[in-house]
Amino acid sequence: MTTFLIAVGTLCAICVGLSLVLVVADRYLSDYGRCRITINGGSRSLDVRGGQSLLNALGGEKIFIPSACGGRGTCGLCKLRVRSGGGPVLPTEDPHLTADERRDGVRLSCQVKVRNDLDIEIPEHLFSVREFAASVETMEDLTYDTKRVRLALVAPPEIAFVPGQYIQLQCPAYGDNPEPVYRAYSLSSDPADPRHAEMLIRLVPKGICTTWVFTRLKPGTPVTFNGPYGDFRLHDGTGEMIFIAGGSGMAPFCSILAAMRQAGNPRPTRYFFGAKAVRDLFLLDEMKRFESDLPDFRFIPALSAPDPTDLWNGERGLITDVVGRHYPDCRDKQAYLCGSPGMIDACINVLSGRGMPPENIFYDKFA
Amino acid sequence: MTVPLAVTTPGAPGGLAAQLLIIFLAAALTDNILLTRFLGMCSFLAISRQMKTSLGLGVAVAFVTTVTAAINYLVHRYITAPLGVEFLDLIVFIVVIAAFVQILEMAVERFSPALYFALGIFLPLITVNCAILGVSLFMLNKQGYGLWQALVYGAGNGVGWLLAILLMAGIRQKLKEDKIPAGLRGAPITLIISGIIALGFIGFSGMVKF
Amino acid sequence: MKANPGERSIRERMAPGVLSQDGFLGTDGRSLQEIVAADRAELERAGVTPDEVADVIDGLHAAADRGLETPCPACDGRVSVEEIEVMGRIPCPFGCGYRAHKAVLRVHVAGRVFELTPLHAHLIREHGFFQGRGAAFRLEPADAIALVRLCRTASSGATD
């Protein structure tokens, strides 16, 4: 009996002792001090405790890299480009990386340990992605099939986004629909008002989410969404900017124009809005206000099939033809497009046919 | 209590230095743990493809063997033996080796990242290298070993293992695998080769009494 | 008819609210094989192949694409088409991996309006599936045959 107790006691004592030694060693040996993580060529830099995985270090700084396996190196979702300081690729990362990715320095952030200063690249949109709880503040009919939905944020109370970005609105299970779905909508709100999120939503015939928006949403309805996402935004330059969008494609431009007004942006800007008839036009007053507030902005609606009763004497024709007529030479201009893939492809054809370099054409495809 | 650094055994010729040299050579060559006892085979088979990685693993094993032999000697002499629980030696040794390798891994990672990346997965692999546990256990069978003898015995065995894996890596690098029947490629041919080398080493066994 | 496991998962995806608001089966109680076989038989009697139907739908989509949501003529002006394209893609419910653009093509023919989607062309061409009776987007084989005949004579009209 005594031997038994001694044996158990000894074994426990030894194990506890060794564990203590390990804890102490971990405390001192795995202390890499503070390390600096430079993100996207210096646009942001973090000061983190060394010795942890890059994924956790970023998570601690509220930058959430998608990861499904929780850092075990099995899902391969947490890929990032590590420009320097990541050390060699580990065998655990190997199966997840293609030859191209390896050449570009792509790594699994859960496997890269922060041992020294790192220089990494993170897709811009991941910086501020959050889940928001909000409630519908107002719903406004813009046309027979388009609504402006304004959400008041509840938690977190504010959203920071770059004008041009979109959010994913959650459409909960309702009626026959067994599970929630997410649909992307560009934000049309003024970034200077971060307590609200505003979208332009056009009824999609038999669409799951838009049907919900049009039939079930009322002021006061609680909704959830996450975001912001996307890299559609204004780019630097001096030449004239051509915006092209019809229908709910106007949303990102509402936001962009509001930011331009805020900044007093003097760049010459023309917004071509394609629609069928007068009944498809909306927010004309707001566009008028932008015209008078901005130094050099003009809103040019173009109707492809105006009703005789519309008494329309503005631009006529398909938006591609109207843009083509306005700009015989697009060489030194920038274009921003938002709309269906068909519309965007047609516009790109017209613009590049008139000499616009492809790197000057930015678009947000509904696809 | 003082640690007896050396316990001179009656039959040992010469002084301490000579005795230690004999222990070292015997452990490394005539009593090679890998080639005469076939311990530590799994990593030996898996890693002996290239000289460079073999050297890295071999050095790591040699180092861990040496240090754990000494630590385990102390654990046996001052903890398990006085308490009369020698039957715990096996379990305790395993735990000690695992903890030591953990600490070693942290230290290498901290102070020599280059070595850390060169060793890669070898360090954790050492934890389960039976040669290391074997050395600590065989040491207990040796009569009249002090701390010095234990340390040198560990070092000798470690160097012996290093030597064996380097030999094998040298051979495998020169080996043209396409001349080998498909069924024998890889581990089988390595086992055959190590068997042939072992024949040579076993020929020396018993030459040195220690 | 007993549904095999493959058919069961397909039918689950075709249920309302899973991939589309109204689903693909409508009130049709027949098995998928029965639906497909019945519609194929009707096409065969008229001497029309599923490929021809799909080609006509693709052609109408291409014509509508040029209109950018504005109605425009197709098949030598015998039909008028307009297309509303929306965000996202819809996967084929048969689980073959195909993902169609989400769009609704409205085809105005002789006072009638058909609503077709890019998924129609795929379903008909690859799976011979015109959707179940009562489904929101079912294309009746009789209508498909009429469309094919209309556009077939239109494209060869110049040589007649």
Describe this structure in words.
The complex is a heterotrimer of chains A (367), B (210) and C (160). With 367 residues, chain A is an alpha/beta fold. Helix content of chain A is 25%, strand content 29%. Chain A has helices spanning 2-29, 54-60, 99-103, 208-215, 251-263, 284-293, 319-326, 341-353; strands at residues 34-39, 44-49, 79-84, 106-108, 118-121, 130-141, 146-155, 166-171, 181-186, 196-202, 222-229, 241-245, 269-275, 297-303, 315-316, 334-339, 361-365. Chain A has a 6-stranded antiparallel sheet, covered by helices on one side. In chain A, helix 7 (319-326) packs parallel to helix 8. The N and C termini of chain A lie far apart (75 Å). Chain B is mostly helical. Chain B has one domain. In chain B, 72% of the residues lie in helices and 0% in strands. The longest helix of chain B has 33 residues, at 51-83. By secondary structure, chain C is of the alpha+beta class. Chain C has one domain (5-155). In chain C, strand 1 (72-74) and strand 2 form a beta hairpin. The radius of gyration of chain C is 16 Å and the shape is globular. Residues 156-160 of chain C have low confidence and may be disordered. The A-B interface holds A 3, 6-7, 10-11, 14-15, 18-19, 21-22, 25-26, 29-30, 32, 87-88, 90-91, 115 and B 75, 79-80, 83-85, 87-88, 91-92, 95-96, 99, 102-103, 106-107, 109-110, 113, 117, 120-121.
N-to-C CA distance of chain A: 75 Å
Percent of residues in helices of chain A comes to: 25-40%
Largest protein-protein interface: A-C, 30 and 29 residues
The ordered H/E elements of chain B are HHHHHHHHHH
CATH-level-2 architecture of the largest domain in chain A: 3-Layer(aba) Sandwich
Residue ranges of chain B: pLDDT <50 for 5 or more in a row?
Answer: 6-12
Round the Cα radius of gyration of chain A to an integer and report it.
27 Å
Domains counted in the coordinates of chain A: how many? 3
Could you give me the name of the CATH homologous superfamily of the largest domain in chain A?
Answer: Nucleotide-binding domain of ferredoxin-NADP reductase (FNR) module
Q: In angstroms, what is the radius of gyration of chain B? A: 18 Å
What layout of secondary structure does this protein have?
The complex is a heterotrimer of chains A (367), B (210) and C (160).
Chain A: H1 2-29, E1 34-39, E2 44-49, H2 54-60, E3 79-84, H3 99-103, E4 106-108, E5 118-121, E6 130-141, E7 146-155, E8 166-171, E9 181-186, E10 196-202, H4 208-215, E11 222-229, E12 241-245, H5 251-263, E13 269-275, H6 284-293, E14 297-303, E15 315-316, H7 319-326, E16 334-339, H8 341-353, E17 361-365
Parallel strand pairs in A: 1-5, 12-13, 12-16, 13-14, 14-15, 16-17
Antiparallel strand pairs in A: 1-2, 3-4, 3-5, 6-7, 6-11, 7-10, 8-9, 8-11
Chain B: H1 16-30, H2 33-37, H3 41-47, H4 51-83, H5 89-111, H6 113-119, H7 122-127, H8 130-141, H9 147-174, H10 187-202
Helix pairs in contact in B: 1-9, 4-5, 4-8, 4-9, 5-6, 5-8, 8-9
Chain C: H1 5-14, H2 32-46, H3 50-67, E1 72-74, E2 79-91, E3 99-109, E4 112-116, H4 118-127, H5 141-155
Antiparallel strand pairs in C: 1-2, 2-3, 3-4
Helix pairs in contact in C: 3-4
